[in-house]
């Protein structure tokens, strides 16, 4: 499974086979009107890009095992990243 969002929180690569070390997807639709793209190399998430089509609260389970940078401010509640988005906002998360 590449993406999951039915709980209201987007999960990136929640259930992929262990031998899928290099995998990516582009613009998969998630609940809440978000388009999600992500890339994993050598088993580590490298980049996540999320386009907010209608605005609103975006919750993402932190997909990174280490440090990352975000293109916009966010709040963190345990391992959930929370973004307040507007229409057509693009959130980019990149592994450091």
Question: Please, could you describe this protein's structure?
Answer:
- The structure is a single chain.
- The chain is mostly beta strands.
- It has a single domain (3-95), classed as Golgi alpha-mannosidase II (Immunoglobulin-like), CATH 2.60.40.1180.
- It is 0% helix and 55% strand.
- The chain is built from no helices and ten strands.
- It has strands at 3-4, 11-12, 23-30, 34-41, 44-52, 56-61, 68-70, 75-77, 80-85, 90-95.
- A five-stranded antiparallel beta sheet has the order 3-4-5-10-7, with no helix packed on it.
- The chain is globular.
- The mean pLDDT is 97.
- The geometry reads as globular
* Rg calculated over all Cα atoms: 12 Å
CATH 4th-level superfamily = Golgi alpha-mannosidase II
Sheet with most strands: strand arrangement: 3-4-5-10-7
Largest sheet features: 5 strands, antiparallel
* Approximate helicity band: under 10%
- What's the overall average pLDDT, rounded? 97
Distance between the termini: 25 Å
Structural class: mainly beta
Strand content: over 45%
The number of helical elements comes to 0
Count of all domains:
1
Number of strands: 10
- Which residues sit in consecutive blocks of at least 5 with pLDDT less than 50? none
How are helices and strands ordered from N to C?
A: EEEEEEEEEE
The second-level CATH architecture is: Sandwich
CATH class division: Mainly Beta
- Enter the CATH topology name: Immunoglobulin-like
